[in-house]
């Protein structure tokens, strides 16, 4: 299945939640009015930063080089580079072109998130847009797994699962065995399919965290996404590092990272990269559906970084191996954009995945239960 990306139309509201965990959301046909709109609700202006780069079109060498330098310098002061929430048409166009440039320069492959283009899907709040999320994934990834490898297969499975957990009602998920699906973090509470899909990934993953750092019992699906996406307005990319054992019990190491350019509960990021690593174990059914997912990582260290208590520990101290970002990370954005312009790179392929999906979206071929999507793609 293709993971074609859609032009973003989302501008969801940001507001209170007031939801209780006992009100299982699986049967809801439309979103609550006050659903928090985290990642896609973040814009430079909403964070007090109104300086945007010029809207001049590529290729215009002088303007583009200046703009890329300003964007890259913003990262060091906590300013978003390419925000996932409410990107401008210029943001999307430049991100799409830079993403295609990185694909050709480094041989990257766009993540496959399964049936994201299936017109029969009724999205919670609109089809997600992964254009900018994929760009940040390309900028920060440290592995370039071969197409068809076990590592890429597992990575795509988890990315598809994450997309479904965020954007689909449980009855439409295709990555799990719905009758037996369970999740567990750090050997703690086992969450059933109904409860895990209701509380959301952040809350079951952080359920073993110290309460003074993050109390998952006081958070909802919406509030948890809001907190972390406000902290990471450029998304929260994820990659598989190594697969240690194949099916039926898949064991793998992974890495999660983000630029802390936003704010978490009053603690302002300064543009540093926050990295989390861990181990995952997925028990698979005969038809390769997830039956149980176990994740092991250090939630306390992660939260202490966001709350200003400790400097980020990137996982290497615990023996999980990964290198530097292949494309140089966000700090290399200025050079990459300048290089792209100097080489007169142009992606004019009529079959471009972003343009093709955008045309389908504009023709109204995708169904939604709640209008525009505030939960834009992040992983």
Question: What do you see in this structure?
Answer:
- It is built from 10 helices and 10 strands.
- The chain has 379 residues and is α+β, with helices and mostly antiparallel strands.
- The strands form 3 sheets. A 6-stranded mixed sheet has the order 3-2-9-8-5-4.
- A hairpin with a 4-residue loop joins strand 2 (182-185) and strand 3 (190-192).
- Helix 2 crosses helix 3.
- 46% of the residues are buried.
Mean pLDDT: 75
Gyration radius, rounded: 20 Å
Number of helices: 10
Task: State the helicity in percent bands.
Answer: 25-40%
The percentage of residues in β strands lies in 5-15%
H and E order: HHEHHEEHHHEEEEEEHHHE
The total strand number stands at 10
Largest sheet: 6 strands, mixed
End-to-end separation in angstroms reads 18 Å
What structural class should be given to the helix and strand makeup? alpha+beta
Shape: globular
**Low-confidence segments:** 1-80, 349-375
Strand order of the largest sheet: 3-2-9-8-5-4
Topology diagram in text:
Blueprint: H1 61-76, H2 89-106, E1 122-123, H3 131-140, H4 150-167, E2 182-185, E3 190-192, H5 193-199, H6 201-205, H7 221-231, E4 238-245, E5 249-260, E6 263-264, E7 267-268, E8 272-284, E9 290-297, H8 299-306, H9 333-342, H10 353-362, E10 367-368
Parallel strand pairs: 1-10, 2-9
Antiparallel strand pairs: 2-3, 4-5, 5-8, 6-7, 8-9
Helix pairs in contact: 1-9, 2-3
In short:
The chain has helices at 61-76, 89-106, 131-140, 150-167, 193-199, 201-205, 221-231, 299-306, 333-342, 353-362; strands at 122-123, 182-185, 190-192, 238-245, 249-260, 263-264, 267-268, 272-284, 290-297, 367-368.
